[in-house]
Amino acid sequence: MRVGVLTGGGDCPGLNAVIRAVVRKGVKVHGFDFVGYREGWKGPLEGLTMELGIEQCRGILPRGGTILGSSRTNPFKLDNGVERIKDNLAKDGVDALVAIGGEDTLGVATRLADLGVNVVGVPKTIDNDLSGTDFTFGFDTAVNIATEAIDRLHTTAESHHRVLVVEVMGRHAGWIALHSGIAGGASMVLIPEQPFDIEDVCTKVKDRFRSKYAPIVVVSEGAVPMEGGEMTLVSGEKDAFGHVRLGGIGDRIAAEIEQRTGAEARAVVLGHIQRGGTPTAFDRWLATRFGLQAIDAVAEGDYGKMMALRGTRIDRVPLIEGTGELKLVSDEEYAEAQVFFG
Amino acid sequence: MRVGVLTGGGDCPGLNAVIRAVVRKGVKVHGFDFVGYREGWKGPLEGLTMELGIEQCRGILPRGGTILGSSRTNPFKLDNGVERIKDNLAKDGVDALVAIGGEDTLGVATRLADLGVNVVGVPKTIDNDLSGTDFTFGFDTAVNIATEAIDRLHTTAESHHRVLVVEVMGRHAGWIALHSGIAGGASMVLIPEQPFDIEDVCTKVKDRFRSKYAPIVVVSEGAVPMEGGEMTLVSGEKDAFGHVRLGGIGDRIAAEIEQRTGAEARAVVLGHIQRGGTPTAFDRWLATRFGLQAIDAVAEGDYGKMMALRGTRIDRVPLIEGTGELKLVSDEEYAEAQVFFG
Amino acid sequence: MRVGVLTGGGDCPGLNAVIRAVVRKGVKVHGFDFVGYREGWKGPLEGLTMELGIEQCRGILPRGGTILGSSRTNPFKLDNGVERIKDNLAKDGVDALVAIGGEDTLGVATRLADLGVNVVGVPKTIDNDLSGTDFTFGFDTAVNIATEAIDRLHTTAESHHRVLVVEVMGRHAGWIALHSGIAGGASMVLIPEQPFDIEDVCTKVKDRFRSKYAPIVVVSEGAVPMEGGEMTLVSGEKDAFGHVRLGGIGDRIAAEIEQRTGAEARAVVLGHIQRGGTPTAFDRWLATRFGLQAIDAVAEGDYGKMMALRGTRIDRVPLIEGTGELKLVSDEEYAEAQVFFG
Amino acid sequence: MRVGVLTGGGDCPGLNAVIRAVVRKGVKVHGFDFVGYREGWKGPLEGLTMELGIEQCRGILPRGGTILGSSRTNPFKLDNGVERIKDNLAKDGVDALVAIGGEDTLGVATRLADLGVNVVGVPKTIDNDLSGTDFTFGFDTAVNIATEAIDRLHTTAESHHRVLVVEVMGRHAGWIALHSGIAGGASMVLIPEQPFDIEDVCTKVKDRFRSKYAPIVVVSEGAVPMEGGEMTLVSGEKDAFGHVRLGGIGDRIAAEIEQRTGAEARAVVLGHIQRGGTPTAFDRWLATRFGLQAIDAVAEGDYGKMMALRGTRIDRVPLIEGTGELKLVSDEEYAEAQVFFG
């Protein structure tokens, strides 16, 4: 049996650990051959392959990135995309595919499975917003990086009486902000699921200064002001201090806080350092176990499934379960930690 | 309402995070007062108290150790131990206790609960061997420290053609060894649940050298040779205190490997660095949530319970469930990762 | 003898280590008393003091920030600033001052020394741009944080064929960029001392992609385009991709690279995480030794001096030597590592 | 011109950075060819070579170990060792050698240089005990690892009233112990250069407990008791290989402290984790600059020299200067930090 492997979407610590586990168990236990498809769905679409065996997987466990490369190519948006993939799989003698990726990559996998392609999926997102699994790998690494950054900023905030706004990843879901905010001892956590009132944020900033502690505000990149609580500084304008304070939500919140409270505020945008580099032990363990389970699913012909962490077990759930709906922070989960915030 | 808090047993990253969460929610939401009992059960036994409020908990979230101190005192092994505890609780006006600790500390809590003391427990062990909960805090930190050590040793093993034996914590359960062995890409993992054959270990060492890779053997401190596979080098004498100080299992395995294979072997015993210092983000998050749930249990009069992680939820389970039986690595869990080992 | 201590300017890992060393040796060896002046020169100006003894310095060695607080107050810019300082020192019975700070703080110290105030200075700047000393504390921490960030970004750059622009601190001097660029294996390092040609940067980006490696460009916040090599996207405008790409030099360079080369480019602005949190071992060692030497200078009445690292020795140099002229990256030092760049 | 490169002796973070810099500048600037000699002096002795060019050096900068492998082979202890080396160099067309190593490796280089071999040396020792240079690469990494370990142990010592003895590397010189002891806030530092009185150590342990702080004792592996202050507990027997494996100095001191003071004491022996894994930024920078200077020395025919850090400059000094005499901690350097100890 010959199995193709591909990785799609943004970078995520643990991708190589999945690939290594898939290949190692595939070769050693199931006696499979492998084809590496390069750059996500572009690989089977354009026939971009690379040799993939135990040798190629040596030493990659602790390394970020993906030896297969990645892209955001979506075959369903291209002419004859599906046909070209089927043709290339046939030409390469590939019987089954392991697709490792997030919402988009697995969305393609789901549709291909419906069209008869033998595919199993491994969920990947540092945002942790895929349904059907307790956690995805990469998330723990991102949360640790954000938490270390918050740890570092605490002393600056205290010693210099500054407000520090930390913008973390999370377009649709606030998991990284919530977990790193709890772990880092933030004063406030603003997430996409709970639109904020900028005036309320500023009140809490002033309260915190009154009790002599400098505030750290953790904000998801996708956080938005609520209706009636809009920010008034227009993106691109200079703020009251003459700084051009622009771009993302973190910078804008810092500018508003300065203008409304008079306290110095600075934004730190963590950006891509959250999604690169060596994975934490948890992410390597989870990614490895996803990989082992995925190749077992292939061996059993259990296609159309996605690997999922449930407690400490790795289960298989229908692909559609993981990609149907985003997993958001619930009201209860957001409320749980409010006693530390504000 | 007045609540006592104590921490017992060995050091564990996250203890302060639990204390902070208990106190903060207790004061802010439930309007409770707190008494800090110092040095585990010795505190209520001997009336060792300290002030405990929001102020005492500032800045402790990222810090290892416990502001309450700890001990291994067991009141059931002392004359009138239980009476003295009840008397001191009454004298201090304490209505309920939050006991944070491992098997021993929670074992005492379980028996005190049976005797009518209002107590809730928070499970603590870096070994992760308490039943009833998916994970305990401190474990993730220990696994990350062990994994980083293994990462560092890889290059030395490769460049210098040496066998490196890494001894990690785990007297009865091999969780730290198994998780760090998977995450660190070890060649072998020896755990208490699976007695090893030293000759088999040496065969695998030689095989690995034959394929040009230097082996890293991760071993739990409680690992033991199987019958018929005993080690033959005599271990160190007992010292003046009756401790067999010299030559833990790691050192002994390294010595046997050298003798039997002729390859240079060195042991690294990680010891106490696994249980001190700042907790990982996961452990801070878990410890914080355990603390929040524990004080809610007190507020609801739901005594005799232990906090437990189930998936991503914090549940309460009967104390007896956590302390009745150790949670060991199952045959399946050990088998799962064997494809990387040997 | 009674000694005042103050810390001025921006945050810098190692400030607490200096304070601890000054106080500990002052008390234990020289038998001095101490007064802590809060918030830089604002402290002696407004009589803001705090108790400062061995007890206040317990546990602060590994902590970022400064227990004395800081500010950018300059007494020479205020009415009667110098008189008020002299009056307060007299009122507090302070015989000598240890001033820990950067160019501005030590500039004030230099002028006060000329006016008869007994002051010794300890140089502090994460930018490493103070003359007279091989290194300043805080710099090594900043370089390590930047290097770890670059390490993390490498895998993303490779796996996703992106240009990553990392903006590090350094308004006037490129030391952090140069050291972290060498240590992180950057493809290019742009520093204030060497104005760059944006077209040349883009050529090198294309060359690097041609040899199949993704470029990482490290840029000091103070880097500037050379005459004739200006960037053309106006700050604040949308770029060719519709992104509002603004603000700092890092963002602007990324935008220009995207527009001119067609390659995806992202900027990561490390900001304040470079100047907070626990110091590296080197910075703790250097800060501690500066503190020990500073209090010895006080004990010897050797005022008007600044502590300086020369090789492995701590020397004392005239304050004016440290503050007279910025220490910039020389042409030779920039040229030395060019073989890795471009 | 064709240049051989070899690495000898124990593992040391930064070896790969030197190799990369030598090769990159050698190829790009000087137009040299390279031969990699494997496993130290064994390489040119037995003709063990590997291809070495820019391609082989990609991605190795942040990696511990050495792509060339290492050994402790000494050609002067073997029959016709020198002749065989000269023959192999001639056969391989090698005009000059860059030897990277410690006392032994450079000692061989020194003698070969006297015998007419064109060789330049790069000093390598995590112990930092080579003369002629302010620091050697690998040392900063080792000190940081030791310091992080001490940081972790502090909370355990405090919370559990334990004495913790940390054994660090340093057979002949106490540099790692001294620097990490200062940086980690140790209570005592015992080094080979200053024989200790065990009774004095125990008195200080008791004093420290009396002032309510738990002691951390940092000890070099080569520390020895002074005459009249011997330890009385017998250490472990020799094992079958004649190694006294059981009970290094750390374990023995902990045992003595327990017996003499009644306080619980534990030893942590850091061992090989100090010499593996990714180098710090400082070590990468230093190693890189050593490599650049070494290949320039070759290009200039300036043989018989060793690279040396002097302040912030890289100088060349006669090989004999580095290997003639060990660089030990002076009485003044040991005395400097005593105010923190005891």
Automatic annotation (TrEMBL), chains A, B, C, D:
PANTHER family: ATP-DEPENDENT 6-PHOSPHOFRUCTOKINASE 3, PHOSPHOFRUCTOKINASE
Enzyme class: transferase
Protein name per the record: Pyrophosphate--fructose 6-phosphate 1-phosphotransferase
Pfam families in alphabetical order: PFK
Record-level GO cellular component terms: 6-phosphofructokinase complex
Annotated substrate binding sites: T125, I126, D127, R162, M169, G170, R171, E221, R266, H272, I273, Q274, R275
Pathway(s) of this molecule: Carbohydrate degradation; glycolysis; D-glyceraldehyde 3-phosphate and glycerone phosphate from D-glucose: step 3/4
Entry function: Catalyzes the phosphorylation of D-fructose 6-phosphate, the first committing step of glycolysis. Uses inorganic phosphate (PPi) as phosphoryl donor instead of ATP like common ATP-dependent phosphofructokinases (ATP-PFKs), which renders the reaction reversible, and can thus function both in glycolysis and gluconeogenesis. Consistently, PPi-PFK can replace the enzymes of both the forward (ATP-PFK) and reverse (fructose-bisphosphatase (FBPase)) reactions.
Phylogenetic classification of the source organism: Bacteria, Bacillati, Actinomycetota, Actinomycetes, Propionibacteriales
Keywords carried by this UniProt record: Cytoplasm, Glycolysis, Kinase, Magnesium, Metal-binding, Transferase
Cofactor(s) needed by this chain: Mg(2+)
InterPro entries: ATP_PFK, ATP_PFK_prok-type, Phosphofructokinase_CS, Phosphofructokinase_dom, Phosphofructokinase_III, PKF_sf
Active site feature: D127 (proton acceptor)
Catalytic activity: beta-D-fructose 6-phosphate + diphosphate = beta-D-fructose 1,6-bisphosphate + phosphate + H(+)
Binding site for Mg(2+): E103
Family: Belongs to the phosphofructokinase type A (PFKA) family. Mixed-substrate PFK group III subfamily.
Enzyme Commission identifier(s): 2.7.1.90
Domain Phosphofructokinase: 2-298
